[in-house]
Write a sequence for this structure.
């Protein structure tokens, strides 16, 4: 059957219609005429695969990756990078429009390299997961990975073992001698990873692994501590926890946030993680309050804010609103960066009644971001000054964004 791919949707699939029914087509480009075969049918939509490209888009390009289409990572590499960004921008605008939000002006895109940008990987049984099965792709090189990660992948092929492996390697990482680092951490019962230093010379070299269970509790683990330099600040975090994968765009984002901060007495960093943004808030505010449910991350936040005036609350946002918010000072700014599920309802309600004059809202999911912003606009008396698309993951349908909300 034939279909015209009408537009891209969040996640990277194209959307078209057959006999009035929505059909999602992976690896298509909007505007293409395609012959497809339905692989999955639900009550109100189908998922189809391309059997023939009848009329290709001028924006279609050959994917340069040998694993593309099989690996579960990238899903927009067949589209020219410039057009990819325009598509992600259109998705972000559409999602906000569905929540009744008209984004003022244009959406600025904060971008970095299209390839060689990703510092953080999670391997399963030594490889990456397939797109549509439980099979593993044993990669030796990833076009999206930073060079230190690819050095590890090339040197460790066939020796990575079973289980889950966390890999973090970046040109933003430095040890005392100024060399690049790669940190590898394995979780499971098999032999696990330690720290691998100065990996560029890999010929004839073996990577040795030490046993290391997944961490629990709130203990600083030096052997799993990564140090990166962002905007001339040294930041520590545990490689086994969450940290941004694209440090090129992250550094630009931090500079933008820094430039937006007017300064004042008190700042709130909600969902603070390891305190990266708090370290920059402390430059312009007399006191920073961090709220983060993951106490392991707060161990690193304490180190990142050592010597700076701050307060840490190791609890959920909901618990903080219920138990601690009333005893905290009035805030001049709130930076909030929730998980994919978005702000907790109690946190949204708190912001709506808080009177905080400036809220910088970061998100890794356009749908929950639009929902949360709509609540602040309608119930909190805020107006949307601008929104930026943070292009952390080129060649994918993943979208992150920064909304600037101020009291009307």
């Amino acid at each position: 059957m034939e279909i015209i791919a009408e537009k891209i949707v969040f996640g990277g699939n194209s959307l078209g219609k057959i006999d009035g029914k929505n059909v999602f087509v992976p690896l298509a480009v909007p505007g293409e005429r395609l012959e497809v075969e339905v692989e999955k049918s639900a009550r109100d939509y189908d998922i189809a695969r391309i059997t023939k490209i009848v009329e290709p888009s001028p924006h279609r390009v050959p994917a340069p990756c040998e694993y593309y289409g099989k690996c579960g990572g990238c899903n927009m590499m067949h589209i020219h990078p410039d057009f990819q960004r325009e598509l992600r921008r259109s998705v972000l605008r559409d999602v906000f429009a569905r929540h009744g939000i008209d984004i003022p002006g244009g959406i600025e895109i904060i971008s970095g390299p299209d390839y060689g940008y990703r510092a953080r990987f999670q391997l399963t049984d030594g490889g990456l997961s397939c797109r549509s099965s439980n099979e593993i792709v044993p990669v030796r090189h990833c076009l999206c990975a930073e060079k230190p990660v690819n050095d590890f992948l090339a040197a460790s092929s066939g020796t990575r073992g079973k289980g889950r492996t966390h890999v973090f390697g970046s040109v933003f990482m430095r040890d005392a001698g100024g060399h690049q680092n790669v940190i590898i951490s394995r979780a499971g019962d098999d032999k696990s990873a330690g720290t691998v230093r100065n990996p560029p010379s890999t010929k004839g070299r073996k990577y040795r692994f030490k046993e290391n269970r997944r961490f629990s509790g709130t203990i600083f683990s030096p052997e799993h501590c990564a140090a990166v330099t962002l905007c001339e600040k040294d930041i520590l975090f545990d490689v086994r926890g969450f940290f941004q994968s694209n440090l090129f765009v992250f550094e630009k984002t931090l500079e933008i946030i820094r430039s937006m901060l007017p300064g004042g007495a008190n700042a709130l960093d909600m969902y603070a993680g390891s305190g990266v943004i708090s370290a920059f808030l402390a430059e312009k505010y007399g006191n920073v309050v961090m709220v983060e449910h993951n106490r392991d991350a707060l161990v690193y936040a304490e180190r990142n804010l050592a010597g700076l005036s701050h307060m840490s609350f190791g609890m959920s946002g909901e618990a903080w609103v219920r138990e601690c918010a009333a005893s905290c000072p009035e805030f001049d700014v709130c930076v909030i960066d929730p998980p994919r599920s978005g702000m907790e309802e109690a946190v949204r309600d708190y912001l709506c009644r808080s009177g905080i004059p400036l809220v910088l809202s970061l998100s890794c999911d356009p749908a929950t971001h639009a929902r949360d912003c709509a609540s602040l606009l309608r119930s909190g008396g805020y107006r949307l000054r601008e929104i930026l698309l943070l292009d952390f993951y080129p060649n994918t349908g993943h979208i992150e964004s920064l909304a600037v909300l101020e009291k009307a």
User: Anything to note?
Assistant: The helical segments are 81-98, 147-156, 247-260, 276-284, 295-304, 317-323, 345-354, 366-379. The chain has eight helices and 22 strands.
